[in-house]
């Protein structure tokens, strides 16, 4: 009998000792600083949205303060500790409009709306499979893959653009466009939507979408389609109002390319022979970075190019001049400061662990770099408080 | 009393005593005629240079384990990746080398999955399993098929063999389990003795569970105030499955044969990762697995023993994503495997055996997925092994030659290329030494070099596969000791202790790397390199603390450092991941099982501890995973009547209702219960 009590006592003790699991604390932010700081009169800093690998729920928000030179990683959870499961899964776009910061969180089916100064949460807009967001007057326009489904003859699903009132965060109207719409652009009373057809081309590249949808802003109806190339992704405007559209290619024989859409003729009048993964237009320059897999070399071929938007000439295929490009694994996001012409490039790394944010000056020399979250991708410029 | 002093006799005593202690004490009256179960002394056990870790008989049954995956957690050196719930995927990893390096054998023949190399051990219920053994390196036994030499670590599942009491020709057992997650799990077993030489066995089981359970996410602020505390219910984790097995086995003059048929059919929901704003998912998976295998073995002459194995397997899997907010996926995959093997053992001298085995295996995969090719693989394995025992040293050496022939037929795409053919030679050496005649202490060491072929998914999966992939290699070095002792009197009956220190390298590790622009485009590459250093300890003992009360205690503990030394292009990023502990491998983990038996009662307490780990090689705070531990308790009462025997057991799992995750964003159940009733005639 005594032995049984002894054994039970030992077991109970082990039980007690092992109840030492701690409760999980909300993720704190981490801060690093850089010495040389270029503060400007107009802008306070940039937010960086990290996408996070699908299913990991690791989309995070970072902030770089121009004034103090401090880079704060993962600020959302600390500022909004009561939100269950933090920011969400796969951030896809980040924009500042008025006083609000909008983060499109694709695999959490929502757009997180925050105060632009403090990143404090104001609310969310629930939109399934949302992709990109742009604004005009008091409305936000968001593309989504999840439109109406058709089963005959094969399963297909169109995408749509949703119109949301930014004051109430309520959905006002929907306009159906092509298959799997990606980025959109609002210019001259029209919404231009780049359709990718990304769900459809795996077996046969001809099944990719090829068109840009044009929606009239007043009627919010799709007016026409403009044929470009397979698997469209980005669409941006230069200072003359012409449009630049990129295609991701078909990942096999058909390469990624950049296309010039003349705003008067409303069709493609030029193709630039350079791959364009992501790009940013400032002044007369289009800065692009791209990664393309080569089945010949079994490596990623990477370019950092600048294209003159007036002459359409490729000014350089590698604007990084100090050799730092040999250190960048997967250039993913690109942003150019409108005044200083500093070039910010994010390195997505191996997609499952932290990436880097690099800043290069206008001559292509590295100024500083910071460790970010997983898959740093989207950068939004925060104007100073007036 | 005369003390026998021949080593063989003492080993046999140990084996028999263990079987008695573990299996035989559910008898009612110890003072009446003892009824001891038939003891099958397996002669091969004594030939193993390095004994395995084993879970068998009553000890296995009284673990609160539903599937093989749950039971394997109690071995040292093992990591389970558990996605939660009864139907959730569960894969095993031995000594951090990766689940694709593991071989799982069912009744002596390997279970295959050429498509993704994963065996979901959650699919194998313990209902019909009699023994689970785990071998590091390989089973150090020469007389085995070439396949048995071909993995970095192996798990053997042995199904129940018919045992008949004298005069009985039939044995029927019916079991019914129910409990949390709306579980309904009946099963029935019928064993029939045709004649003195041949017996048959037939087993059917069905599992239904809604898979619903509560889970909780709680975070606190640095000042310990609650930040958020949400409880929800796991949805879409239901499982309906049906399994049937039939077997005929027989003995022949100096040999035995058996044949088995196995069929498994399931329909399950995939609960998926819980992320912000998404608390429920709707993906579904159907599996239909069938295999039939035949094994024949005979000692043809005094010196020559022969073994044949044959197997055919057919596996179907369908994955459906009906969620209209995501890409619609409805893909079916069908695999077929044909396997034939012959092993020849020749005893040159009393202490010297040689074995030559040849295996052929043919695998093929069909799918309706867009862009999928149809790969076919023909594998030829030739193994030569020798076992020498001289005085107190036992040595086994083996060499495995693997020849792989790949072919591909156009599936649903126009670009067709097969991976190149491969030839590999893989040696292994096992030595054990017993320094003292008197004491049952043995030192052992082994070296093994083996590889795993890239799976069909690694090579050919639409857009991700890479036919230039090379195999992944493992090099294992192990040094350890084993000590056991048994006693004639006193409250300790017997105990044993094993300790192993090991160093493993995984080279050419196949990892997914990003390629090209665009969302989540990956390519499989041989980029990884992992070094693993660890210590495995395990001990077990049988005690009689009080008269008529028996206690079986089993403890295991592993300490390991498994580091990612993969080189990267970016020095800055490499400094974040280089040398980091690889995903989900804890530095420390252990388990304990305590079973107390008294007459017809049995109480079992088991404990599992998995220490802190990171879910990524970047060991930073965002990737930190808390340690978790669970306490399980079970009570069993057996009943003995003249015509039938019965058993009732009640289990409580995760006694302290801990909220934990094994895999990031896949919450595990809180406290849950199970009741099982069984009747045997």
Verbal overview:
The complex is a heterodimer of chains A (386) and B (681). Chain A has 386 residues and is mainly beta. Chain A has helices at residues 2-17, 76-79, and strands spanning 30-33, 43-50, 60-65, 70-73, 91-97, 100-105, 110-115, 121-126, 130-136, 139-144, 149-150, 156-165, 170-179, 181-187, 190-195, 211-216, 222-227, 232-237, 243-247, 257-262, 267-272, 278-282, 285-294, 299-308, 314-316, 331-336, 343-347, 354-360, 366-374, 376-383. Chain A has a 5-stranded antiparallel β-sheet with strand order 1-4-3-2-30, with no helix packed on it. Chain B has 681 residues and is mostly beta strands. Mean pLDDT of chain B is 86; it is low at 1-46. The two termini of chain B are 40 Å apart. Chain B has helices spanning 7-23, 57-62, 68-72, 456-460, 571-577; strands at 53-56, 78-82, 90-94, 102-106, 109-110, 129-136, 153-159, 170-179, 183-193, 198-209, 214-220, 226-233, 239-252, 255-270, 283-299, 304-321, 329-349, 352-367, 374-390, 393-409, 422-433, 440-452, 472-486, 492-514, 522-546, 549-564, 580-581, 588-598, 601-610, 613-614, 624-625, 628-640, 645-653, 672-680. Chain B has a 22-stranded antiparallel β-barrel. At the A-B interface, helix 1, strand 23, strand 28 and strand 29 of A face strand 11, strand 12, strand 25, helix 5 and strand 28 of B.
